[in-house]
Amino acid sequence: MAVPTTARDDRTRTIVTAGAGRPDRSARREARRNARVAQGGRRIGSHVLLLVLALYFVIPIWWLFVAATKSTGGLFSSPAFWFDDPMQLFANIAGLFEHQGGIYWTWLGNSFVYSFVSGVGATIVAVLAGYGFAKYRFRGRGFVFGMILGSVMVPLTALVIPQFMLLSQYGLVNTGWAVILPSLLNPFAVYLMRVYTQDTVPDELIEAARIDGAGEWRTFTTIVVPLLRPAIVTVLLLSIVGTWNNFFLPLAMLTNPETLPVTVGLNRWLALSNAGAGGEQVWNLITSGAFISVLPLLLSFLLLQRYWQGGLTLGSVK
Amino acid sequence: MKNKVFAGLGIVAVAAAALTGCSSASGSAAASCTNEILKPDATQVSVWAWYPSFEQVVDLFNQNHDDVQICWTNAGQGNDEYTKFSTSIESGSGAPDVIMLESEVLSSFSIRNALVDLSAYGAADVKGNYTDGAWKDVSSGDAVYAIPVDGGPMGMLYRQDILDTYGIAAPTTWAEFADAAQKLKDAGAPGVLANFPPNGRAFTQALFAQAGSKPFTYDSAAPTDIGIDVNDQGSKDVLEYWQKLTSKGLVATDEAFTADYNTKLVDGTYAIYVAAAWGPGYLQGLEGTDDSATWRAAPIPQWDPAKPVQVNWGGSTFAVTSQAKDKAAAATVAKEVFGTEEAWKIGIEKAALFPLWKPILDSDYFRELESPFFGGQQINKEVFLPAAAGYSGFTFSPFQNYAYDQLQQQVTAVTVDGSKDASAALDDLQSSLEQYATEQGFTIK
Amino acid sequence: MATHTLTTPSRRRATGHARRQRVGWLFITPFLVIFAAFLIFPLIYAFGMSLFSSTLATGTKFVGAANYLKAFTDPLFLGGLGRVALYAVVMIPAQLLVALVAALVLDTLGTWLAKASRLLIFAPYAIPVVIGALMWSFLYSPRFGPAGTIFGLFGLDAPDFLASSAIFGSLVNIVTWQWSGYYMIVIYAALRSIDPSIYEAARVDGASGLQIATRIKVPMIASSMVMVITFALIGTLQFFTEPTVLRSIASGALPAEYTPNMYAYALAFSYSQFNYASTIAFSLAIVVFIGSFGFLFLTRKQNGLK
């Protein structure tokens, strides 16, 4: 891999020249052996450190799993990090089907629908816009792009009320659209797509297609998009997760319990349980519901690691 | 392969969009109801309420009415519901036709013209069914902004078994209460006598009121005038009393309505729960109850046994919102949903509400009701009915939410942080509320 | 190479250029429509709202900049700003330190244990912030959390994590738990893209692992770290979700105006002062802008931006 040296290049790398002179072979072997021995000791230390860190990050998730298997009484009486006897996970799941007519599963379904629809929509929009910014030099491009980047710094609360008013004009408040439409806005995705497109799609390829007589749209769909596949999948994942995790927007826009996504729904149950009105305390359903709701995301992380990690690097290593 | 991926995604997107469009139908709030509509041709009235077991009451109403049907959803409890209501008032749409509001926030919404004056919709017809105090709470001048539903007359619930173990008699005055607290601590009990929550809000207000506090003077007939008197001597004395107890560790200062607090209520950490009439229902629903617990109810302790003062904590009403499409139908719902004996039997037995509807309030059924939770004690006859009878209504401010938040901050400073004394705290509260009122354009009288 | 020379080259270039400009705009139009509808327009509306004052008693009237003057002299707003600034100063280095150390260690190890640890450290990012806060609120609870038993093992009393004195550390912990994994992945990826022959050369020169880490790796990923810090700064100044979720169990330690964003939310949704809420939100946006652009300017040598 070449180490670029131009100042204009975004990769800020320093040039490291090799050490002056070459020590003779045996000295080098000795150095390497010493290094490996020292490494051995350090390796154990590093692994221990990693384990400690991993433990710190995993313990609350483990807690959630254990809590999901307990009944409400068990939650309050048994030790936090180990199972109660008997295991109530299936009873809890059955409870999730019964309570309020099984509305939990409606919530889960809503989360899926809102996330996928807005995720796909935001991705399509971002791919188009990223390509536009990357490969076309039109006037005002820099200014518009700068505005988009700046918009990341706008606090949410400034937008929710006017967004609410806008959507209520069209009678969309209290429907899924009130969550999906504003979630189509993902300036960071546009930024990622632009960077990736710029880096991966050579201008010459597009020029060649143009000279061959292909229209702009055909060039885009048949030549450019296939090249962008990894980034597209990453942006899709990030958009889906972004909408799934969004709390404040559906909290403000949706009233009807049937329309809530699972984060807001669980929060409602939490509020009701905290308030303690008779018969509404469903701590066991909250913990098991929370656990089930994080499973899709955790699983997708496990299975699609490559894309997650690939995508997050797009923004930093340009 | 890639085309297939995109085709597949496209299909998912379209299907999902179709599903979303179908399931959560377009339109404003009253689109889908938690309950079933029995007569689809009738006028539908949307209702927001959080009463437990309310669906049964709604079903009852829908069965008995042909021209009006209730479409009910639970939009959250207390503040959660109020913030949604607030947003929909601001944006001009999304509010329900009928909304459950605690009486303390009625003026906050009437001042924003969000509630319909029911005197034009036959409120006078049902006035006789409610106590004077209850009616005063929903009226302002000649206007009636809501129909009362339930109240919160206060009493004292206590753990007989704990008090017996330590040889303490149930206190009848606040002086006895303080002594009992000291005695419990001296005996080395693991818990405390009671809890004084910094976020008591209406609870704290009620305790002040028992000492004569009348914090606000407000009438929506003269909406820009307000009287504020929160640092009266009565309030200061009460706060000082509790500060002494908390500073000596005789009484806890846990936040109310948290999981911790709920458990401490029932597992014996607090021996006494100074509660409203909906308290027993609340206790019954909580987890973690001591099996050996014996609960009893008694009247609230008094400052002066010769001049007992009863107070109220909470209580809710049904109001008609100004966004209601058919105001007459909405008014019918507000008046009648908790206007029958059958509905109230559900409310009392399933939801443990304390009715303000006189026909059942005065009935023998209610009076003689034996509560299994209290070992068969007739709690209404002995405690809550007398407490409700003395109630003459209460005036709240049109910025009550703000006032409560400020009160909480001051009480925290006194009982939790120990950084101020009661007198200074209430003086600070007075000046901050006066400043707020002036900023909001009120004239302080 | 095809030759199309029927028209003069300059004119062809001109028409092609103009057409391409239009096409470029076309490609970004869907995004611009959404951007305008859900950001620009609401922002303008909110800005308009912030110039009015709506009092409970006397209705709405135009006050212009007086609202902003009020915001910047409002002790609650300024107090909130001070708090989030303090959080930024503590939380960002904490997250960065954890992320950096983890990433550096992972960079040197290739074992499956390291790979598994990487996944586990990243896992909290998959948990919605609300659920994460919910989990920690249980764990912090004096009754239901394990703190009592764990501290009891050492014969100590568990501290009250939700008291005003401890709430700062408790929140720092939640955010560090939630986000360090994310930053770690970003830094790790940047580390992975460094040419390993540089390390070889350094090792030959006798540099120790630690020296390699601090003198070579860290400077080379400086631009990634700056981006991480910038995003963390923007996020921290807008701190909202975790303290809001924790408020339901610790409302004594966390008043409604604890952070500027919470203050704006309370003003709008609890006290119905939507106009002043917009003012506060805008004032916060101004501070965030200045803060992040200022930081980017100060680090212009390291951040690698054009």
Automatic annotation (TrEMBL), chain A:
Give the record's keywords alphabetically. Cell membrane, Membrane, Transmembrane, Transmembrane helix, Transport
Residues that span the membrane, as ranges: 48-68, 112-131, 143-165, 177-196, 217-244, 282-304
Domain ABC transmembrane type-1: start-end pairs: 108-304
In the bilayer, the protein is annotated as: Multi-pass membrane protein
SUPFAM superfamilies assigned to the protein according to its UniProt record, in alphabetical order: MetI-like (SSF161098)
Q: What is its main location?
A: membrane
Q: Which Gene3D superfamilies match?
A: MetI-like
InterPro entries reported in the protein's UniProt record:
MetI-like, MetI-like_sf
Q: Does the keyword Transferase apply?
A: no
Per the record, its GO cellular-component terms are: plasma membrane
What GO biological process term is on the record, naming one?
Answer: transmembrane transport
Q: Where in the cell is it found?
A: Cell membrane
PANTHER family from the UniProt entry: ABC TRANSPORTER PERMEASE PROTEIN MG189-RELATED (PTHR43744:SF12), ABC TRANSPORTER PERMEASE PROTEIN MG189-RELATED-RELATED (PTHR43744)
Q: Which family does it belong to?
A: Belongs to the binding-protein-dependent transport system permease family.
Q: What is this protein called?
A: Carbohydrate ABC transporter membrane protein 2, CUT1 family
Species whose genome carries this gene: Microbacterium testaceum (strain StLB037)
From TrEMBL, chain B:
Q: Give the residue range of the signal peptide.
A: 1-31
The alphabetized UniProt keywords are: Signal, Sugar transport, Transport
Per its UniProt entry, which superkingdom is the organism in? Bacteria
Segments spanning the bilayer are none
Gene3D superfamilies in the record, alphabetically?
Periplasmic binding protein-like II
InterPro entries to which the protein is assigned, alphabetical: Bact_solute-bd_prot1, SBP
A single Pfam family it belongs to is SBP_bac_1
Query: Does the keyword field hold Metal-binding?
Result: no
Q: What is this protein called?
A: Multiple sugar transport system substrate-binding protein
Q: Which organism is it from?
A: Microbacterium testaceum (strain StLB037)
Taxonomic classification? Bacteria, Bacillati, Actinomycetota, Actinomycetes, Micrococcales
Automatic annotation (TrEMBL), chain C:
Q: Which organism is it from?
A: Microbacterium testaceum (strain StLB037)
Belongs to which family? Belongs to the binding-protein-dependent transport system permease family.
Source domain of life is: Bacteria
ABC transmembrane type-1 domain location is 81-297
Which GO terms of the cellular component aspect does the record hold? plasma membrane
Q: In its UniProt record, which GO terms are filed under biological process?
A: transmembrane transport
- Bilayer-crossing residues are 23-47, 84-107, 119-141, 161-191, 220-240, 276-298
Main location, first listed in the record: membrane
InterPro entries the record matches: ABC_transporter_permease (IPR051393), MetI-like (IPR000515), MetI-like_sf (IPR035906)
Membrane topology category? Multi-pass membrane protein
Where does it localize? Cell membrane
Which keywords accompany this UniProt record? Cell membrane, Membrane, Transmembrane, Transmembrane helix, Transport
Q: Which PANTHER family match?
A: ABC TRANSPORTER PERMEASE PROTEIN (PTHR30193), DIACETYLCHITOBIOSE UPTAKE SYSTEM PERMEASE PROTEIN NGCF (PTHR30193:SF41)
Pfam assignment, any one: BPD_transp_1
Q: What is this protein called?
A: Carbohydrate ABC transporter membrane protein 1, CUT1 family
